[in-house]
Amino acid sequence: MTTAPIATTTPATAAPGVSDASLLGSNLDTFLTLLTTQLKNQDPTAPMDTNQFTQQLVEFSGVEQQINTNNNLKTLITLETSAEAISALPMVGKTIQYNESTAPLSNGQASFTYTLPTTAAAASLVVEDANHHIVYQTAADPSAGSHTFLWNGRNISGTASPDGAYSLVVVAADASGRPIAATVTATGTIDGVSVNNDVPTFDVGGIPVPMSNLLTVQPSPI
To answer: Rounded to whole angstroms, how far apart are CA atoms 100 and 19?
Structure first.
């Protein structure tokens, strides 16, 4: 009787909703079933070489240890992220400046800061809604440095815009018509903290702001 070589297995990719541990367990069960069947039906006068299946068992064990290590790391990251979010709870109600160009319009006011690295020959400010539609446009201070822009929520026709998230775009160019890249930040009040996709996040007027984007915390009024 000839004995077929041990069937090798090709690592499969876990389907959505199937954990790596479950996939590994399924592959290992299949391997052991094949191994047991071949051991039962091997030729007694020509026993199988154990090196091949021993090596595969070692590989399964190594993969299992790596999965366990990854799961433990995920747990530690989740705990650390949750702890960071909890520690930020006292900041609820604080007004912050953060590194994004989107600010909440609330009570007829949205606050932005834009910085020009050099003086521009021409500059304008464009306010866009969440769908990137132009809502308002006005001339900008073209001088180099940081400038505060407080938008009163009025659109181009002078009608009050609904509360929500609005972005500021700075269009600037030098005397030769070359564009000048401006930096834009926003200001808003923290309404809550949460964890979004393992990222500790501030809720600023309905806008999710990663805590890593925090620039400054404004002092509370006396």
So the answer is: 36
Which two structure tokens, joined as six digits, stand for 188?
A: 């808003």
Hey, what amino acid is at 181? A
Instruction: Say whether 131 sits in a helix, a strand or coil.
Output: coil
Confidence of residue 8 (pLDDT cuts 50, 70, 90): very low
Residue 68 burial (CB count, 10 A): 11
* Contact in structure between 164 and 129 (CB atoms under 8 Å): yes
Region 93-118 average pLDDT: 95
pTM: 0.65
Scan for tokens 């003086």, then name that residue.
Answer: 119
Neighbouring C-beta atoms of residue 130, cutoff 10 Å: 11
Amino acid at position 202, single letter:
F
Residue 166 CA to residue 150 CA, distance in Å, equals 12
Q: What's the token pair of residue 123? A: 């500059």
- Phi first, then psi, for residue 207 (nearest 5°) are -100, 120
| Bridge pairing between strands 122-128 and 134-139 | antiparallel
Take residue 195 and report the two structure tokens written for it. 């964890």
Element (H, E) at 28: helix 20-40
